[in-house]
Amino acid sequence: MMKTALLRLALGTCALAASAADVSMPVPGAQNAAGERVLTFIAKDPPGQRCNGNLQVAAEIANTYRVPIQLLPSSLAEDMPAPAVFYGNQLIVADGKDFNGAASYQIVADVLEMEGVAKQARSGLLFQGAVRKDLDTLKASIKSGGK
Questions:
Q1: What is the rounded CA–CA span in Å between residue 68 and residue 55?
Q2: Could you report the per-residue pLDDT of 25-39, keeping only the tens digit for each?
Q3: How many CB atoms lie within 10 A of CB 77?
Q4: Helix or strand or coil: residue 119?
Q5: What is the DSSP letter of 99?
Q6: Beta 69-73 vs 84-87: how paired, if at all?
Q7: Alpha carbon of 16 to those of 12, 22, 136: distances in Å?
Q8: What is the pLDDT of residue 2?
Q9: Can you tell me the distance from the alpha carbon of 30 to that of 11, in angstroms, rounded to the nearest whole number?
Q10: Residue 133 in 3-state DSSP?
């Protein structure tokens, strides 16, 4: 029974990762001058709850991974879904598609791990004691709409 549940979970996770990897879009600035893929977070103008949450995920990712990150308002990424997150041209999450545009650290980190992205030598302050507590409070505030 437990083995069956774990197998279903693993297959479901692989299916989600495969469906995101199958979608490619012409993302502005998908690569930097050195040819590295850029992690792109597209936010609505003005940003809403999912967009603000995605920006917190960007901060957490920057504390762990050595990856170029760009934050774009939807007005600079016309014809692209917003909110959305891309690694190069590869869709990770998008409004109306996978995860309805709401990224999480784990979703993005899983893609970066699969792609072999290097990690920071030391993780940043966001994962240390009181700073982490403050970040979690901020994220909870964003999810509740500031209430």
A1: 14
A2: 889 999 999 999 999
A3: 21
A4: strand
A5: G
A6: unpaired
A7: 6, 10, 26
A8: 47
A9: 29
A10: helix
Contacts of 71 (CB under 8 A, 6+ apart): 40, 41, 43, 55, 58
* Model pLDDT for residues 74-103, shown as the tens digit of each residue: 999 988 999 999 999 999 999 999 899 999
The C-alpha atoms of residue 62 and residue 18 are separated, in whole angstroms, by: 24
Comparing CA positions, the residue from 62, 142, 45 lying closest to residue 102 is 142
Distance CA 143, CA 49 (A): 6
Residues 80, 82, 88, 92, CA torsion sign: negative
129, 36 Cβ separation under 8 angstroms:
no
pTM of the model: 0.76
pLDDT at 49 (0 to 100): 77
* Pair of tokens at residue 71: 């934050």
